[in-house]
Amino acid sequence: MKKLVRDKKASEGPDIVYSAFFFIILNLIFFVALFIFVARAGYGAGIYEQIYAKQIALLIDSAKPGTIFDVDVFKLYELAEKNNFNGEIVKINPDEKEVIIQLAEGKGYHFQHFNGASIVWGLKDEEKKLHIEIK
Amino acid sequence: MKIIKDKKAGEKYLTPWLFLIWALIFVAITGSVIYFYSKAVDVRIDEANILAMRIEDCIVDNGYLKEPLLNKDSNFDILKECSLDKSIIDNNEGLFYLNVSVYDESEKLLKETTKGNKNFQMQCGIKNEEKFFADCTEKKVYALDEENQKLKIVIFTGSNQLGAKL
Fold it and tell me: Contact B50/A61, CB-based, under 8 Å?
């Protein structure tokens, strides 16, 4: 039987290689971009702002007058530095009874506590700890 | 042998579908990540437990119920005595609720103190999967009064502070 080979071009061979190469590159770009997005979402400031605000608020809620404690906030300093944020990373607002954690530009994360006692607090920058006294 | 003319095929016809599939994968993964990380860390039940614990510690002293709590003539303010902020707790539209009920041995109600958002009593009673309803906890404590009579104190507390979502 005659072999029907029509319009066979010599240049089709390299075209197939180029298109396969281009396809692989596009795939790589797509999946790398997706991976970076997921990784950044997981280590973003928002998550840690929420976690620390709630943890500190719960600690204050459970503390009776006369309690003094330190909270390790090393991770907050690290994230603030990573986000080039030089503002106040921890703030306890006595009027609104709020704990505010901010690690990037924006409004941060606010969470209320219900402890009616007077709260004296301060950040120990060298030790990277939050010092709280319930009076 | 049948020869079909003008039949077209090739990668160029699959390319739009390829990009469509990529777009679908991207939207699915991005949507899932955003949905997952936008969930708030729910500490309402912990807040309710802490509130109940603070009240129990403050009204029961060494196994005895503090007398002013039962005394109708006294100005016993449970929020002040337990160092709880009045503006945060004692707010009918607020995010917290507490109910302290004292019963004698025959289950007769001697005193009831309620502060906060009273809707929580109903919400916690019917709460199943409704995440926007409050989370509550009930604690039963037994103590004695001044005359060494047994008392049952039921402390019911609720919190609906979810906080902002990411």
Answer: yes
